[in-house]
């Protein structure tokens, strides 16, 4: 962890979901193959399944942008159907016990909440998926709010975080995430950004501009404790 002593004490921490709290590939690898098997069966996709690494590299983006990259020559009908199948298969996987949180996420969140921090999620994902991960992995009750682009129809994460802060009257907060969209969301709302360098989905340069990089989720406890007045 590269500590930055200029960070203010936070009243709230705002977390991205995929690649920050949830180790998404533990769910998405199987989902990805099922999506394209179904699309081929329904005549909406021809040829082999795109590499799953392409999909994982898009995590943090809005769905419409994801499919434009993963299957750029697809029809609008195929992309719409892929949206439906992704959510269906993700929720089925979560119910079946697939997908894991990153190490130490639950215990760290519980300790932060016990210290009086307000906890939020701000994700570019779909509402049912974001809430489904939190509920099925037993952390939903730790959050003061679970915000998603799918629910609030925001075009950027900057807008989503602004909405969250306004709704809850949040002044001092830290944005915690692994992608450039998280850095932008924090900086666009005047917040310090904690970059999650343990995540494998984003390239390291995406976290350029983050105030602190952490390589273990537990480092948040030390970082937050050092700001207690």
TrEMBL record:
Q: What class of enzyme is it?
A: hydrolase
Give the domain of life.
Answer: Bacteria
Q: Which UniProt keywords apply?
A: Hydrolase
The answer to whether UniProt assigns keyword Hydrolase to this entry is: yes
Q: Which GO molecular function annotations are given, in alphabetical order?
A: hydrolase activity
Which positions carry the signal peptide feature in this UniProt record? none
Cited Gene3D superfamilies: HAD superfamily/HAD-like, Putative phosphatase, domain 2
Q: Which one Pfam family would you cite for this protein? A: HAD_2
Q: Which InterPro entries match?
A: HAD-like_hydrolase_sf (IPR050155), HAD-like_sf (IPR036412), HAD_2 (IPR041492), HAD_sf (IPR023214), PGP-like_dom2 (IPR023198)
EC number in record: 3.-.-.-
Q: Indicate what this protein is called per its UniProt record.
A: HAD family hydrolase
Task: Provide the species name.
Answer: Paenibacillus mendelii
């Amino acid at each position: 962890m590269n500590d930055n002593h200029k960070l203010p004490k936070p009243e709230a921490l705002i977390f991205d979901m995929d690649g920050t709290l949830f180790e998404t590939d533990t769910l998405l690898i199987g989902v990805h193959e099922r999506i394209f098997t179904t699309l081929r069966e329904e005549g909406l996709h021809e040829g082999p399944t795109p590499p799953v690494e392409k999909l994982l590299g898009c995590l943090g983006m809005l769905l419409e942008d994801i499919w434009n990259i993963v299957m750029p020559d697809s029809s609008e009908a195929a992309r719409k159907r892929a949206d439906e199948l992704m959510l269906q298969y993700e929720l089925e996987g979560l119910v079946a016990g697939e997908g894991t949180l990153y190490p130490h996420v639950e215990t760290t969140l519980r300790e932060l909440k016990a210290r009086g921090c307000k906890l939020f999620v701000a994700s570019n994902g779909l509402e049912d998926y974001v809430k489904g991960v939190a509920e099925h992995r037993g952390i939903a009750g730790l959050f003061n709010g679970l915000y998603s682009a799918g629910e609030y129809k925001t075009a950027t994460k900057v807008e989503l975080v602004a909405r969250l802060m306004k709704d809850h009257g949040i002044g001092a907060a830290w944005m915690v995430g692994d992608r450039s969209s998280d850095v932008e969301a924090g900086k666009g709302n005047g917040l310090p950004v904690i970059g999650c360098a343990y995540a494998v989905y984003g390239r390291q340069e995406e976290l350029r501009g983050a105030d602190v990089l952490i390589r273990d989720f537990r480092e948040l406890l030390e970082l937050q404790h050092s700001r207690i007045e």
